[in-house]
Amino acid sequence: FQRQMQINRARRQRKLREDMNSERGTDLSQSTGPRPVDIMVAMGHVDPVERRFWARETSTDWWDRIVLQVWDESQWLRNFRMRKGTFLELCELLSPALKRQDTRMRAALTIQKRVAIALWKLATPDSYRSVANQFGVGKSTVGVAVMQVAHAIVDLLLSKVVTLGDVQVIIDGFSAMGFPNCGGAIDGTHIPILGPDHQGSQYIN
Q1: What is the end-to-end Cα distance of the chain in Å, rounded?
Q2: Would residue 44 be called left, alpha or beta, if left means φ above 0 and alpha means ψ between -120 and 50 degrees?
Q3: Is the dihedral of CA 185, 190, 194, 197 positive or negative?
Q4: Quick one: where's region Disordered (predicted)?
Q5: Residue 147 has pLDDT above 50, yes or no
Q6: pTM of the model
Q7: For the residues 41-55, what does the mean pLDDT come to?
Q8: Which of 73, 109, 143, 185 is the most buried (most CB within 10 A)?
């Protein structure tokens, strides 16, 4: 309610300035003397409004004080699929693509927090809303962080870390283990399939 009153008051002030400017036919921005609106503010007829950027307050204590300072290696492995040392090294490698500057509106999320948000979303079945609540950020912020980190990994690390190898060599290797015509394996991903009518028990999903 108070915020709505501030918005309405700001609108009235803006309308008053526009009306005064129109009546006088003068460009107030070029005036060397005090503006009429300044005189009215000094006389107490118009209240100056401090313009502020509003954002919903959220808590980041869980990340700042628990995860970063308290969690042991087993907790990092279980939740982020990597040790804390590996996580910090990853943040350092991705920093050239993830650097952001603070604005007058709000402070930018740290690189560590953005990488952590992305890893948590990729490593768990949690929804965007759940991850947002976990890290004390907005739901849209989670989506942006995931995309930023994914693009940074592709741009900076894909050519250095991920090697696909020769496809035929991979197929031969899987065939030797009893998996013919297989060119790769996807870990941690559930892919629904429709089994054939016959021998359905061999295609349990």
Answers
A1: 54
A2: left
A3: positive
A4: 1-36
A5: yes
A6: 0.55
A7: 46
A8: 109
